[in-house]
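Our preliminary data section would be incomplete without showing what the modeling component actually yields. Below, a chain of 213 amino acids is followed by its predicted structure, encoded as tokens that our downstream tools consume directly.
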Amino acid sequence: MYANHFGLDCLPFDNRQDPPFFYTTADREEALAAMQCRIEHGNGVALTLGEAGTGKTLLIRTLLLRLTSNHRAAVITCPPNGSMEVLKEVCRGLGITLPCSTTAARMLNQLRRHLHRASRAGTRSILIIDQAENLSAQALTELATIADLRDETTRLLSVTILAQPQFRSMLNSPELSRLSQELYGEWMITPFNEGGTRGYIRHRLRAAGRVDQ
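Predicted structure:
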């Protein structure tokens, strides 16, 4: 009712994750370009930080639209923290069928073989972790092991982590030094300034169907 009254197709400021609602700024475009570059030209871990509400999840949706059929991406949001749960989610996200009962070592070997076959077939495998600040130290240690999977010459998986800024202090702890060493780039998404806020409002209204903006 409210949308129709204002000439809109939908409510413009809902927590929508549709890529047309993505409003780009210099730092957001830089983060997108950097993540895409890491995916295309090198493996390792890329980290993008931003406060809650700055559009990290929408950034992921926009990134996925820029990938091609030569990419296979597993996206994990609100990552689980139980033993082997991150590993299981990565396998499921990449289309690996797991037996009902297995060990971490067997899952890792199965994942490594899958990634190696994909690499030989010309497919680049990608793991995207959203809301990584919710991960436990145990899960992050598991993630470091996954990120380090490699064949004779290169890592087999490109990992992109998106998190709130406090995640950076988590990485500074000695027990997570291994994951810190896997980082190949770090970017920050900042809140809009006054001009950015005006542009954001106009863009969301247009995306919602308003034609007189």
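The chain has a mean pLDDT of 82. Residues 104-120 form the longest helix (17 residues). Preliminary results of this kind motivate Aim 1 of the renewal.
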